[in-house]
Design brief:
Blueprint: E1 2-3, E2 7-10, E3 13-16, H1 17-20, E4 31-32, E5 41-42, H2 52-59, H3 76-95, E6 98-102, E7 109-112, E8 119-130, E9 138-148, E10 154-165, E11 170-184, E12 187-197, E13 205-216, E14 219-236, E15 242-258, E16 261-278, E17 281-296
Antiparallel strand pairs: 1-2, 2-3, 4-5, 6-8, 7-8, 8-9, 9-10, 11-12, 12-13, 13-14, 14-15, 15-16, 16-17
């Protein structure tokens, strides 16, 4: 990769200065994911405001030099505000008969909200079991809070109780996607991405999916759930031999409008991965096996997410 006076070369694509001005929010994270191909950077979301012709450029980007990693430490003000909301949520959950609460199994996340500069987004994931006389299962939930960054005043909160089941497949990380998802003239959404995986090296399963939230009154409304952003699965010997696949999705704001909410275009690209032992080495091949484009329309309550682009782990 190299940077020049005319633009920034990323993989096989030259992004010029004029093109960069069209990026409104976008790639806030680039991950090195060996399981998706040695030396590949996985680009998981794009928010592009260019015309239809320029959309093709976004789709073929394989490598991207991100603006930042999107990792922020929570301030004392943010921690205090989040702890106060979580305390109330714990009381509600216990009163409703849930048990096995764990709000500390992974770290909380905090991030400034660029689209709403005075505010920050805070997330505390948790797990719990539903007992009520019998164990019905273990679930992942998350307390989502937005605060005034200076005063710490809570301007909105949501307890998203059933995000996914957690058992053999557990949460590995969460990421606050603060790209400017302007779904309406007066509403900017943000996303929370959940990365879950099993513990098997022979039959790995990993999926990252995103839920989109938009402010509503003193809280939030979940408008899209289980959007598959990346996946990796297959079978092998845990060392070299492997047959499986991976996928990555990008999200683009559409031009159509339904129920005062903009359409969302999703492009998911699937790749086939094969690895086998040759002599004393391991040979790996990877090729694009297909792609799908889906236009999501708001039905007045939710963006209905079809199975082709929906995580199998999301509830």
């Amino acid at each position: 990769m190299r940077c020049g006076s005319q633009g920034k070369e990323v993989g096989h694509v030259l992004i010029t200065r004029s093109m960069r001005r069209k990026w409104l929010g976008l790639v806030e994270r680039v991950e090195f994911q060996p399981e998706l191909g040695r030396g590949w950077l996985a680009v998981n979301s794009l928010f592009w405001s260019g015309d239809r012709r320029s959309l093709g450029i976004a789709v073929v980007i394989s490598f991207l030099l991100a603006l930042s990693s999107g990792v922020y430490a929570c301030s004392d003000v943010e921690k205090t505000a989040l702890a106060n909301v979580v305390a109330g949520v714990k009381e509600e959950i216990i009163l409703e008969g849930y048990s096995g609460l764990d709000f500390t199994f992974t770290e909380v996340k905090c991030k400034p909200w660029p689209a709403m500069r005075e505010y920050s987004i805070l997330v505390n994931p948790y797990t719990y079991a539903f007992s009520n006389g019998r164990v019905d299962g273990a679930y992942l939930g998350a307390v989502v809070v937005v605060i005034d960054s200076k005063s710490g005043e809570v301007t909105g909160s949501l307890n998203d109780r059933r995000i996914s089941e957690v058992d053999a497949i557990s949460l590995k990380s969460i990421f606050i996607d603060a790209a400017r998802y302007r779904l309406s003239d007066d509403g900017v959404a943000f996303g929370i991405r959940f990365l879950q995986a099993n513990q098997s090296s022979a039959t790995p399963l990993q999926e990252e999916f995103m839920n989109l939230y938009i402010p509503k009154g003193r809280g939030f409304k979940s408008v899209a759930r289980g959007l598959l952003t990346s996946s990796y699965s297959g079978e092998g010997d845990g060392w070299c031999v492997f047959e499986g696949g991976a996928s990555n999705s990008i999200f683009v704001m559409g031009t159509g409008i339904a129920h005062n909410m903009r359409d969302i275009q999703v492009v998911k690209t699937d790749r086939r991965i094969s690895s086998r032992q040759i002599n004393n080495g391991c040979s790996r091949t990877e090729s694009v096996s297909g792609s799908v484009r889906v236009l999501l329309k708001f039905d007045g309550e939710q963006y209905k997410v079809p199975d082709e682009i929906k995580s199998s782990l999301s509830l």
